[in-house]
Amino acid sequence: MLRLSGVTTVDRAFLDTTGDRRARALLYRLEKAMPPDLARVRPRLEASAAPPRIDMVYGTDNPEDRAQAEQLRGAPSVRLYPIAGLARHSTQKFLCDAGLMPAVLAGDMTALERLCDPQSKVHP
Length: 124
Known about the structure:
Elements: E1 2-4, H1 12-18, H2 24-33, H3 42-47, E2 54-59, H4 63-70, E3 78-83, H5 91-97, H6 101-105
């Protein structure tokens, strides 16, 4: 599963702690409709006998996206691809502009290696 600056939790406490104020109207509706145990991805990955591989691509300089991605650090089958210096949320536009989207969509994550922050990436 490819996640480009993707949301990994809609847990209000986590969002408040990280200062993520995006999509509060949607969060309110989700809290009313969704069981609380579905708010976080990590526990579901840890409980799965065969968790799906998740490739998280995000910008190191976007605090909200970075917090969402890095809360999965160390979770089973998760690979983090932090793009050094990328501040915008639109990771897909960045990948398209850089000519990397076809390779990434084909599952070739090696195309991202030269762009990743070596201190932050996690590839099990």
